[in-house]
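Deliverable D2.4 — example input (C-alpha cells):
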C-alpha cells in the first residue's frame, strides 16, 4: 500500500508541493490539521528521493510563517481594539500586556514545539501586543528549529515512518496536556490571588 502511494506521488510530484505549503498555512487557522504528520511524510519521501527535501522545507516553513503572522495580526489588529469590551478591568489587560512583553519572546521561541496550542499562543501574542519584530524573529527561529528537526529525520523516516508518527502523536498529547494543566493552574492561582486582594 505504501509503495503504491509513493509511486503515485512520484508521478504526481507537482501536486505535492502546493499541498505542503497550503497545509502548513491552514494549520494556523485549523489546528487539528496534521501538518507535522504531512511534513514528516514529505521528509520520508525526500529520504526516498521522491521529493526535494530543501524545497519541501522552504515551502512548509514559509507557509508556517505566513500562517502564524496572519493569526498574530488578527489578534493585534482585528480583536485587540475591542478587548476592553470583554475585559472591563484595564489593570488585568495591562498586567497581561507586561507579561507578554517580558516573556512573550520565549513563549514564541518554543511555540512550534508545543503542538495543539500553537495558534492560540500566536493569537494571544497579537492580542496582548508582543512587538511585530519579536514575533517575526522568534517565530522564524521556532519554525526553522522544529521543521529542521523533522527534516533531519528524513533518512531514518524511510525505515521507521510508523514509529515517528506514533512518537509525534504521543509527544503532542503529552505536551498539550502538560501545557493545559499549567495554564489552568495559572488561571486558578491568578483568580484566587485577585479575589483575596
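Example output (designed residues):
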Amino acid at each position: 500500500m505504501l509503495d503504491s502511494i509513493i509511486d503515485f506521488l512520484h508521478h504526481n510530484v507537482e501536486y505535492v508541493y502546493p499541498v505542503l505549503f497550503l497545509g502548513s498555512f491552514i494549520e494556523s487557522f485549523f489546528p487539528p490539521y496534521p501538518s507535522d504528520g504531512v511534513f514528516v511524510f514529505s521528509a520520508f519521501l525526500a529520504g526516498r528521493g521522491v521529493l526535494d527535501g530543501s524545497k519541501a522545507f522552504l515551502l512548509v516553513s514559509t507557509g508556517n510563517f505566513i500562517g502564524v503572522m496572519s493569526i498574530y495580526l488578527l489578534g493585534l489588529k482585528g480583536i485587540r481594539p475591542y478587548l476592553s469590551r470583554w475585559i472591563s478591568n484595564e489593570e488585568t489587560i495591562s498586567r497581561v500586556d507586561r507579561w507578554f512583553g517580558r516573556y512573550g519572546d520565549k513563549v514564541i521561541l518554543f511555540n512550534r514545539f508545543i503542538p495543539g496550542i500553537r495558534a492560540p499562543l500566536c493569537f494571544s501574542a497579537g492580542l496582548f501586543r508582543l512587538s511585530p519584530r519579536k514575533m517575526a524573529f522568534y517565530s522564524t527561529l521556532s519554525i526553522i528549529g522544529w521543521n529542521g528537526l523533522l527534516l533531519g529525520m528524513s533518512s531514518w523516516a524511510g525505515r521507521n515512518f510508523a514509529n515517528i508518527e506514533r512518537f509525534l502523536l504521543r509527544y503532542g498529547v503529552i505536551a498539550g496536556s502538560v501545557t493545559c494543566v499549567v495554564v489552568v493552574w495559572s488561571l486558578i492561582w491568578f483568580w484566587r490571588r485577585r479575589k483575596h486582594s
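Residues 61 and 143 are 6 Å apart (CA to CA).
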